[in-house]
Amino acid sequence: MSQETRKFEAEVAQVLHLVTHSLYSHKEIFLRELISNASDACDKLRFEALADASLTADDADLRIQISWDPDARTISVRDNGIGMSREDVVANIGTIASSGTRRYLEALSGEQKADARLIGQFGVGFYSAFVVADRVTVITRRAGQPTGSGVRWESDGKGEYSLEDQNVTERGTTVVLHLKEGEDEFLKRWQLRSLVTKYSDHVAFPIRMPQEKDGKPDPTDFETINSASALWSRSKSEISDDEYKNFYKALGHDFNDPLAWTHNRVEGSQSFTTLLYVPEQPPFDLMMGGRDERKGLKLYIKRVFIMDAAEELLPNYLRFVRGVIDADDLPLNVSREILQQNRQLEKIKAACVKRVLDLLDKLSRDEPEKFVTFLNSFGNTLKEGIVEDASNRERIAKLLRFASTKGEGAQKTVSFDDYMGRMAVGQDAIWYVTADSYAAAAGSPQLEALKAKGIEVLLMFDRVDEWMLGYLNEYDGKRLRNVAKGEFPLDEADKAKQEAASAEAAPLLERAKTLLGERVSDVRVSARLTDSPSCLALADFEMAPHLARLLREAGQ
Ligand code: ADP
Ligand code: MG
Question: What Pfam families would the database entry show (predicted)?
Fold first, then answer.
């Protein structure tokens, strides 16, 4: 089975088509994606070599090399990382075995247009090579396998690829791009070099390039062109904002700057470093509600990449956070199973949560505009924390913002603290109303009496609100109360008025009760209303009608 030609799975062909057409305005990111794969391959080998040192015995200096050939019009990216066997090649490039490809397609079949932002996130980075190349060759051999087990993969990115056995003397992978007409700008050393600086400077392995001699690369004279340091391990004062931002972009495969970050080193019985970022916009899978396969939080142990461990290191409601955690004292041979029960890790997780909440708190005070951006992107995700994280409930609640009868229309600007700061004398509760839209909340007849008394009511109309409020009974010692539920607070004058009104309306109430029968549990004269003739009210323990409807729609 030395030589064969295979077809891409239909979905791959489709993804290829989309990627090459949608990425065009950002075509230079192919280099970032290929370097990122090379770096991943080095990470993987370093990790495997922990258990089997013979894998790197012959050549322990993991590195990435970039070269160009003006005559052949090719660029090559080579790494001496883990490499691929024939089966690996077939599985990793050419099928949709990588679930990322499938999810990418699913995502795109919705209303979303193909968006360059998504490419890296969905693990289709390799295909970006076809944005600038009309033919791509991959020559690779898996570490630890004999030289004869090498493979040559080649494709024009249209529908088929070929596979061939080949002797490959050095382990690792070389990707060769045969550039399309008109892409000659990438054949210049300074251009490649500046792209590396722009997108890949932080990569933790040396990226080397030959010097130029008579317009051609000189294979005898290589220079390292990135800083090749683990950014997070340097001291804060030595890192510029741009370095932080670039590191984030590569880590999160994002084109946008991060909104904020926090970088900390904890020394003590257990030492670790955290560098955590809050993005500006939700990554695509978050918008899709996808929770499986959370990526973007990398666990290192003494600078050795161990695994993506977002699920182990952050609670679900902080799933938008990206970053790196580098622990000094964990055993290097940890597995996911061990991680899940590791006590040290529990501490690190708690520290990460604290860092993120501190960061958000600071943002809310010092950079309110950015904080608004944050809430627009992740406010509803954060609300899940009220339910999920009882120990930080109050801190999370402090960060939330709502529309209110004393706020700015539908805009969510009022915090619980704002509310408390202008509570009426003797007011003993924080009042809110829930509905399924701003208009329904703001127009609710149940607000009338409170409005008339000048009491502020928070207007809650996001899907998660009702669920969240089920877990948030008080804030800073004040009870949270739904205006639609339970007894209403009356002063003495009001009470007398209501008793008189009840007596007067007794025949009407009786008649309404008979007419409505089973559908209501009681009909009463209400203190809630000033203008409207009637409204529905719930007992304290009852579910709001729109929530009941939502649950019914969801088939529960
Ligand atoms: P992702 O990197 O998100 O997994 P890519 O499309 O960039 O998605 O790469 C697909 C897969 O191809 C990788 O997961 C990896 O298994 C394999 N691969 C790509 N480049 C290399 C490389 N240089 N060395 C080893 N494996 C590679
Ligand atoms: Mg990749």
Answer: HATPase_c_3, HSP90
Residue 551 has pLDDT above 70, yes or no: no
CB 448 within 8 A of CB 529: yes
Going by alpha carbons, the residue nearest to atom 16 of ligand 1 is 92
Nearest to 300, CA basis, from 318, 333, 327, 275? 327
| Closest Cα to atom 7 of ligand 1 | 125
User: For residue 428, how far is the Cα from the chain centroid?
Assistant: 39
Closest CA to 44 of 99, 9, 84: 84
Sheet holding 133-141, edge to edge: 3-7, 160-166, 150-155, 133-141, 172-179, 74-79, 64-69, 207-213, 216-224
d(CA 342, CA 346): 7
Nearest ligand 1 atom to alpha carbon 120: 3
Instruction: Name the residue at shortest CA distance from atom 14 of ligand 1.
Output: 92
* 322-327: strand order across its sheet: 260-266, 272-278, 322-327, 297-301, 304-308
Which ligand minimizes its atom distance to the CA of 42? 1
d(CA 165, CA 286): 41
Return the axis-axis angle of helices 10-22 and 99-109, rounded to nearest 10°.
60
C-alpha to C-alpha distances, 187 to 77, 137, 190, 193, nearest whole angstrom: 13, 17, 9, 11
- Burial (CB < 10 A; 0-12, 13-18, 19+), residue 322, is buried
- Strand residues in 233-290 grouped as ranges (E): 260-266, 272-278
Interacting residues of 241 by C-beta distance below 8 A, sequence separation 6+:
none
- Ligand 2 mean position, distance from CA 251 (Å): 11
Q: Looking at residues 482-501, what average pLDDT do you find?
A: 70
CA of 98 to the centre of ligand 1 (A): 10
| In contact, 293 and 307? CB cutoff 8 Å | no
Give the atom of ligand 1 at the shortest distance from the alpha carbon of 88: 16
Under DSSP, the state recorded for 229 is: S
> In this model, does residue 547 exceed pLDDT 50?
yes
How far, in Å, CA of 213 to CA of 112, rounded? Answer: 47
pTM: 0.74
Tell me the ipTM for this assembly. Answer: 0.99
pLDDT at 287 exceeding the cut of 50: no
For residue 39, give the ligand nearest its CA.
Answer: 1
Backbone phi, psi, residue 465, to 5° = -60, -50
Type of residue found at 371: F
Which mutation among 47, 78, 126 tests ligand 1's pocket best, with the greatest number of atoms within 8 A of CB?
126
Whole-number pLDDT of residue 289 = 42
CA distance to 4, 99, 244, per residue, from 91 (Å): 15, 11, 34
